Amino acid sequence: MKPRIWLFLPFLALTVLAQMPTPNLAPCPSSPNCVSSKETNPDKQVASINLRPEQDWAQIKTAVSALGGEILMDQPPYLKAVFTSTIFRFKDDLELLQVGQTLELRSASRVGFWDMGVNRKRVQKLTQALRN
Predict the structure, then answer these.
(1) 86: in domain
(2) Which pLDDT score, from 0 to 100, does residue 2 have?
(3) Where would a tag sit more exposed on the chain, N or C end, judged by fewer CB atoms within 10 A?
(4) Residue 16's pLDDT is what?
(5) What is the per-residue pLDDT across 27-36, written as a single tens digit (0 to 9) for each?
């Protein structure tokens, strides 16, 4: 009787995996303190990052950490990190989603209305780090 149970385990595993949500980036709020490669509003839009074939997930994580990010969630192809400002300790979230050789991204402040361009600059620094 026990050997029959093993026959159903692969089907059970596939059923569980099929029900797992596909990771996606959160949408930007109406406030101007968010940028995303999925955004259609030109004021909030940033380019996705085209990865080189030799770049792997570890290099992406290293680049995020080198910029000061604390990685909260690391579930390839999705990564979430938090950045904390030096003086006022404001927290900004960075989300990355790898789709093939493309890295989609979103960077947003958790509180406040204006971010003084900090999120856009962070994305530019990450892009530069991954291109070098």
Answers:
(1) yes
(2) 55
(3) N
(4) 45
(5) 999 999 999 9
Distance CA 7, CA 69 (A): 44
- Give the CB-side neighbour count of residue 59, counting CA atoms within 13 A: 13
The range of the structural domain enclosing residue 97 comes to 25-131
How far is residue 71's CA from residue 109's CA, in Å, rounded to a whole number?
Answer: 16
Residue in the block written with tokens 């101007």: 32
Question: How far apart are the C-alpha atoms of 98 and 23, rounded to whole Å?
Answer: 10
Amino acid at 101: Q
Backbone angles phi, psi at 113, to 5 degrees: -115, -50
- pLDDT digit string (tens) for 62-98? 999 999 999 999 999 999 999 999 888 999 999 999 9
Q: What is the pLDDT of residue 22?
A: 66
Reading the block at residue 105, the tokens are 């991204």
User: Is residue 39 a part of any domain in this protein?
Assistant: yes
Tell me the C-alpha distance between 65 and 13, whole Å: 33
Q: CATH number of the domain that 60 lies in?
A: 3.30.310.80
Report the DSSP pairing between strands 78-84 and 91-99: antiparallel
How would you classify the pairing of strands 70-75 and 78-84? Answer: antiparallel
